Amino acid sequence: MFKKILIANRGEIALRVICACRELGIDPVAVYTEADENSLHVRFADEDVCIGPPPARDSYLNVPAIISAAEITGADAIHPGYGFLSESAYLAEVCEACHIKFIGPSPNVIRLMGDKAKARRVMKKAGVPVLPGSDGPVDGEAHALKVAKDMGYPVIIKASNGGGGRGMRVVRTPDELGQSLKTAQREAQASFGVGDVYLEKYIDAPRHIEFQILGDHHGAVVHLGERECSIQRRHQKLVEEAPSTALTEKMRRKLGNTVVDAAKAVQYTNAGTFEFLMDQTGNIYFIEANTRLQVEHGVTELVTGIDIVKEMIRIAANERLGFRQGDVKFSGHAIECRVNAENPDTFTPSPGLIHAFSTPGGPGVRVDTFAHSECTISPYYDSLIAKIMAHGRTRDEAIARMRRTLDMTVVEGIQTTIPLHMKIMADPDFHAGRLSTAFMERFQAEQQKKANLAQAV
Ligand code: MV4
Description:
The protein is α+β, with helices and mostly antiparallel strands and 457 residues long. The protein is 36% helix and 26% strand. The protein has helices spanning 11-24, 40-44, 63-73, 89-97, 107-114, 116-125, 141-151, 174-192, 249-265, 297-304, 308-316, 395-407, 418-425, 428-432, 439-456; strands at residues 4-7, 27-32, 47-50, 77-79, 101-102, 155-163, 166-171, 197-201, 207-215, 221-233, 236-242, 270-278, 284-290, 333-340, 352-354, 356-358, 365-369, 375-377, 384-392, 410-412. A hairpin with a 5-residue loop joins β12 (270-278) and β13.
């Protein structure tokens, strides 16, 4: 097992990785910037290294700075958390060259999954259902028109090297296709350095359902079930839950087994997430795979009792998975609300000093946060300050626990999305599990209508 792990991240996820290190008897090393020097991840690590000025591109995204920090401290592994360098095949490769273990999939798998058109083709070949679409990048307008005609409109153009909603374009008629294709290719070139785009049948108001997997270096792969992440705004997830209200036990088993087989086919190791879209008739299709620990991993941990971060570390240290698929038992229901330092109506960032911060405990509650009373939320990084999770025997119990937890959370000095979450938790569609990626649009339109009515009286 490793003696020392450098955590190439900040905020709540750096603290989360410190938790796993402590439980495994590993010394955590923190990296930080001038904006983060008083952060809890620095306080609770055994050692810390300043890696540069606040802008991420000069610090948390700086591969030489991260590698130097690992070499100086003698760390034998790097955990990248999520965001920043977590899906950098380049960092994983440099780690290999420097004999430092990268705690994540191999550079080859990261690169394969980073090419969404290639990932789609490989998954299809492995027997995973994918949407009708182009077999790899489209070759020009004539090719695109042919593919779109065969599958029918609307279609969506996606950047091969995009992902997470960046560089997508919906096309509803053939006469728009040529122009949209050119624009999409130009944008893809500018944003990702590669102009390749591919085509898929467009699904209106789908559910976003993702499967968590773990694979070791001895050929074992297990899935930990799914998470439903349909409640999002501008490709930022707001609320996640496990399990999804849309899957039956039988669907979960079948799709889970398919994902495990596909992961084995690409020799997937460490943690991964396979994203699917479910259309309104219940068909489900693979769209992309994420080769990192995800923000929302905690809801899976709550329903399986498996510590995903500890498993990632054990896997990277060449240990065998200590359990088989049949040992994974799903228990109850878990919900996560992402608490952002933002105006809850406009979502504009609200960094600054938190005067008072307090979260309740009690049965079935987990809060992952780096916030505390008298801490400053920096404007340089993303606005996630806390993940409030609630677990219950039933979905209703999890919702009740979430509501009383949100109610008893104190954050003074900055604005947060807690008031928004309280309203979502009270929403009839949410209660009924009637979810889709269109949820927030409908929800916000209704909120606006209510506000206008209140204005009128
Ligand atoms: C789609 C889609 C509809 N049809 N693909 C956005 C994030 C990226 N991972 C994939 N995304 C989508 N791909 C097809 N063929 C709709 C979306 C989408 C979406 C997906 C998941 C969660 C939220 C979303 C919000 C808008 C659009």
